[in-house]
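Action item from last meeting closed. Structure (184 res):
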């Protein structure tokens, strides 16, 4: 679907990102892209490594997501994106409707979320070794902002998705009223 209130600057950025995902995905195999994707996942995991359950539900405002909500979102999105990449890689129609799940509260502990997100990253490695290294770029699925993406483009999308949410987590952690910052 089209984002109705998109500015020309946002549209240009989304087109630039679409070009990046598609061209890099066409140029490189899953294995060649793997290092970038895994590095982003490790950086994401490190960004909330010390967040305690007691602080994980705090957010700077009612509109802002808590760290627990962010990590839960990334985990669900990553799982859905992996299914999409797998389907597109073997020539099937992929469902991209769940790659950006809505904000949802969860009571999963931070330790469990860390473990699940780490294991999800490992699962990505396992999955790409079971897929053709350079699948056809013909089957695509739409992203709400970046347009039609093929399997390797979606795989690379996971990298920027992880990094975007790493930044979101860092914003929460550095907010003046974040619980640990009040003690300093």
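Sequence:
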């Amino acid at each position: 679907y089209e984002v109705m209130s998109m500015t020309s600057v946002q549209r240009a950025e989304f087109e630039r990102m679409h070009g990046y995902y598609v061209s890099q995905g066409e140029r490189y195999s899953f294995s060649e892209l793997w290092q970038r994707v895994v590095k982003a996942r490790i950086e994401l995991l490190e960004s909330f490594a010390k967040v305690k359950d007691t602080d994980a539900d705090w957010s700077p405002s009612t509109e802002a997501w808590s760290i627990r909500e962010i990590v839960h979102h990334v985990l669900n999105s990553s799982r859905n994106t992996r299914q999409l990449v797998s389907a597109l890689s073997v020539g099937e129609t992929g469902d991209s409707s769940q790659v950006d799940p809505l904000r949802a509260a969860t009571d999963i502990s931070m330790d469990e979320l860390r473990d699940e997100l780490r294991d999800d990253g490992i699962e990505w490695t396992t999955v790409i070794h079971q897929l053709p290294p350079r699948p056809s770029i013909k089957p695509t699925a739409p992203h709400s902002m970046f347009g039609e993406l093929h399997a390797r483009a979606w795989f690379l999308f996971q990298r920027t998705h992880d990094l975007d949410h790493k930044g979101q987590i860092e914003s929460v952690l550095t907010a003046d009223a974040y619980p640990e910052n009040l003690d300093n």
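Note appended to the action item: Residues 82 and 165 are 17 Å apart (CA to CA).
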